[in-house]
Amino acid sequence: MRRLLLATGVVAVLSALVTTAHPAVAAPAAPPTVPERHLTQKIDWKPCFPGKLPDGLPPGSERLECGSFTAPRNWNRPNDKIDIVVAVSRLRPAKGEPKGTVLTNPGGPGAPGRTLPLLFLQQNRAKLLDAVEVVGVDPRGTGESSNVSCGGGANIGAELDPRDRSQGNLDLMLDSAALTARFCQTKSGELGRYVTTEQTVKDLDLLRRLLGREKVSYVGYSGGSWMGAYYATYFPNRVDRFVLDSNTEFTTTWQKSFSWQPLGFERRFREDFLPWAARHDAHYHLGTTGEDARQTYERLRARLAEQPADLGQGRTMTAVGLDEVIATSIYSKALFVGLAETLTRVRTVVEQPGTDQARAAAAAVRESLDRLTRSALPGVAPFPADAEAATSYSIRCNDTPTTGDRASLVQRSEREGRKYPLIGWWRISDPCVFWKRPDVHMPTPNGRNVPPVLMVQSVNDPATPLEGAKRAHEAFANSRLLTVTDEGDHGLYSTGNACVDDVVEKYLVDGVVPDRDLSCTGTPLPEPRRAGHAEEHVAEPQGVNPLTLNAQFRRLIGPMPR
Question: So which residues are the signal peptide here (predicted)?
Fold first, then answer.
């Protein structure tokens, strides 16, 4: 689980401990001096897909252009003449010149973002795409930019069950977190010290200058809200219109921001998914109330902890694997149907071993897991990209302090696990507690001297819960909060909610700043599939997660040119 949700900023976070606020830090210094060799470079834009367009991409994808530029490895010593490469993309209007530039980020922290402009094509956001150029970025450390690595050490201990509170298992989990920190810092070398939000926002401002813009706009999802808030803090005079969607508590530490997640995941599970499954008990037979369905999960998990289920072809379903499937699937209501079907089938495999029904259910589970892998969030197990994982660890372990030790990790995970059992037990696992943090001191974002920023947030977001977003909103001056009620999806703009899209684009394209906080209503939950309806032929409901689509595009495309 710790590795499963890493790149979305979820359960690497689950290991967060007792937190402290930022130390008092002065406002950012004057903009960095940019060496002439960087200012005079030109981005050599070329088609990202010069041959046949990969299957599965939306119409217009042939317009996506790729390029790269160099930046100092250490912006605090730019004259060392040690550079990195930052890979970027742009999607310009089909007709005419763009009226502005919108930088984008899919979150993580650490997810590559060069494919993110394709999201707005796929969702047919014509108003946006006809007006501006949308720019995707693989931040330093990840994607086709200069990479960091954990050398295969990002998933150490991922199979260990945090509910096993035997001293031997606890020691293994703590040792695994410590070893992960050592692997990532050793294998990433000197570059790993400079994979921070401070360094990255300076890369972005160099990109702004190379694009010839006095100001830029921005759309950042999830961990991208953190990056957007920091860019605005370092370069307030360069901010045009910033949209921060599904917000971290970016006005505190990474540790504190992620400490909301056990509450968020548990609430999404109990208030949204389980009651929905209970309403459709005739299809899934998990229980007629949400609590009945939760107890079915608990019994199934206990059986899997005793004996993993054989799915055939050398694959098994473990208790930890079941938790991973649930946590991954509740990001978006579009995955609820598949999750309920998987739970029903795993139950059949466990309760009817050796039968034809169990063999058929096991085959269906394998197919469902393969689909989930293809459509999963960036970096989600079972195949997390090493650079994504290493970048995610580097950013959140380098940016802000992490407090705690082995004893406090055990104590906090015990408290959180009993209260929020879906992922609370995973608070034991935090490599940042064992990280040798470099000397990084970033100013706390407060919104002062920053133009109005629009924050978008669902009330039952599991990964970036409302509580943290509201605190960030209250602490970030002149921000506006668009709250989406009756909603728990993570990532909201450009997902099919007409109200959200309208508010965002009036602000982002037309420059209409809401004069107060606003609210929209969420989109409906899905209906079960009809009996005999092949899964691959059923259209997903509205509300597809932007991070999911970005990950799908990256898997379809593979490496892209610099």
Answer: 1-26
Measure the CA–CA gap between 202 and 38, rounded to whole angstroms. 12
pLDDT for 272-289, tens place per residue?
999 999 999 999 999 999
How far is residue 525's CA from residue 523's CA, in Å, rounded to a whole number?
7
CA distance 243 to 384: 27
Q: For the chain, give the number of residues.
A: 562
Q: How many CB atoms lie within 10 A of CB 535?
A: 13
Interstrand relation of 239-245 and 453-458 (parallel, antiparallel or unpaired): parallel
**Tokens describing residue 375:** 């459509």
- Can you point out the beta strands (E) in 350-435? none
pLDDT tens, 221-231?
999 999 999 99
The reported pTM is 0.92
Q: Which residues pair with 316 in a beta bridge?
A: 310
Distance CA 359, CA 344 (A): 13
pLDDT exceeds cutoff 90 at 429: yes
> 248 near 472, Cβ under 8 Å?
yes
> What torsion do the CA atoms of 395, 398, 399, 402 make, to the nearest 10 degrees?
110
Instruction: Tell me which residue has tokens 């912006």.
Output: 75
Could you give the percent of the chain with pLDDT greater than 90? 81
Structure tokens at 355: 């039968």
- Candidates 3.40.190.10, 2.70.70.10, 3.30.379.10, 3.40.50.1820; correct CATH number of 6-150+189-258+440-521? 3.40.50.1820
pLDDT for res 28: 55
Backbone angles phi, psi at 312, to 5 degrees: 80, 165
Whether the CB-CB separation of 141 and 148 falls below 8 Å is answered with yes
Buried b / exposed e over 279-297, threshold 16 CB at 10 Å, is bbeebbbbbeebeebbebb
pLDDT of 385 higher than 90: no
**What is residue 483's three-state secondary structure?**
strand
Neighbours of 48 (CB within 10 A): 26
Decide: helix, strand or coil at residue 84.
Answer: strand
With beta carbons less than 8 A apart as the criterion, state whether 403 and 435 touch. Answer: no
Q: What is the pLDDT of residues 41-99, one digit of tens each?
A: 999 999 999 888 888 899 999 999 999 999 999 999 998 999 999 999 999 999 999 99
Euclidean distance between CA atoms 136 and 340, whole angstroms: 34
Strands (E), 408-488: 453-458, 479-485
Q: Count how many Cα atoms sit within 13 Å of the Cα of residue 459 in the half-sphere of its side chain.
A: 13
Nearest one of 259, 219, 222 to 240, comparing CA atoms: 219
Q: Which two tokens stand for residue 24?
A: 């008092």
Could you check whether the bond before residue 72 is cis, i.e. omega within 30 degrees of 0?
A: no
Identity of residue 429: S
Q: What would the two tokens of residue 128 be?
A: 């946006």
Q: List the domain boundaries for the chain.
A: 6-150+189-258+440-521, 261-380+529-537
Q: What residue type is 211 in one-letter code?
A: L
Q: For the segment 317-343, what is each residue's pLDDT rounded down to a tens digit? A: 999 999 999 999 999 999 999 999 999
Q: Within 13 Å of residue 259, how many CA atoms lie on the same side as its CB?
A: 18
